[in-house]
Amino acid sequence: MVAGRKALVDNAELAAEMTRAGAKALGLTLFAPSCPAAALSAINSPAGLDSGAIVKEFRDTFSAVVANGQGDMKGKLFRIAHIGYYDYLDTIGILGALEHVLTSVTGKPVAYGSAVRAAQEVYAKSQAEKATTGRGIVRLRHFSYCLALREISIGGPSELGWSSHSTVTEGPRSRGRDC
Predict the structure, then answer these.
(1) How far is CA 142 from the centre of its chain?
(2) HEC states along 103-115?
(3) Which helix (H) or strand (E) covers residue 81, if one does?
(4) pTM (2 decimals)?
(5) Is there a contact between 2 and 151 (Cβ–Cβ < 8 Å)?
(6) φ, ψ dihedrals at 175, nearest 5°
(7) For residue 35, how far is the Cα from the chain centroid?
(8) How far is CA 110 from the centre of its chain?
(9) Region 32-57: what's the mean pLDDT?
(10) Coil/strand/helix, residue 28
(11) Going from the N-terminus, what domains does the chain have, and what CATH number goes with each?
(12) Which of 54, 90, 107, 135 could covalently link to 86 via disulfide, CB atoms 3.0 to 4.6 Å apart?
């Protein structure tokens, strides 16, 4: 697997694990707890609540895109994406917003910070594991940005004439860093 793709998958898996922990801390259940995906987290709507209300509140209050269920699952679950340009801060932000959204749409109190704390614990554990394996701290946003430049746009590095290891010298986050 190309290093950039591996970083994207690792990033998505970490964001998904953080999101699942945050959702559970809020008392929410996962749609498929026995086989969770890295690309997105499917979370069941609280009993008696159409997930469309959650999706709408995210959009209206935070300008955040959270998807409703599809087909028979529409109104029963909502989905939070992890693939692409998402990282630690995006995940913490969406979970903090979820705490407010749930309070707003259910009218019930939420233990503010519980989802964020659970996600931070997952992140801290992952960083400790990386430090003990000698991998160091991965800069997730940087890798996602490099991947977007090299792998996703225009079909990948070979079509752009880039080697499999390039230095980003242009763009909003360049600073001449290696990808």
Answers:
(1) 15
(2) HHHHCCCCCCCHH
(3) strand 77-81
(4) 0.72
(5) yes
(6) 55, 20
(7) 17
(8) 21
(9) 95
(10) coil
(11) 14-117 (3.90.1150.10)
(12) 90
